[in-house]
Amino acid sequence: MDAMQFNADEIYEMAEDIEEHGFRFYETAREAARDAGTRDLLARLADMERRHKATFARMREELPERDRRAGTSLSPEEAEEKGAYLRTLADSRVFGKAEAMALSGSQEGDLLDRALDLEKDTIVFLLELKEMVAPIRGKDDLDVIIREELGHIRMINAWIRNVE
Length: 164
Hints:
The protein is an all-alpha fold.
């Protein structure tokens, strides 16, 4: 798909996919974790990602038809650059069976390090998304989700500091 063809519907769909993959990661990581406290943290993070997906689904559903198919107001160069970046980030969040199997032998520290990387990638994705949807709608919802994703990083870092 050409970046110039991204519209609000497709962008929100990518955001839903990102959150779904985050949910699946945390569920798989929770099953792989041996420590009960780490499992509880990962379960809470999975639930938050599930709620984020529901927020994006709601935002997508509430888009009027004219906005649903509207493209961005970025220049062709900006749209191409941001579109390619968004697609790369979204694609990198796809967790296949190989990663799920690799997680099964991971130490808690490795799981949490991977979770931190994924949260950071999500924040970058959402900041880019925010620039692309600004002319459409949903900026306030994105700000809330970005703050929550930053909170996920704080939660994970606090847990790592307490475990060490």
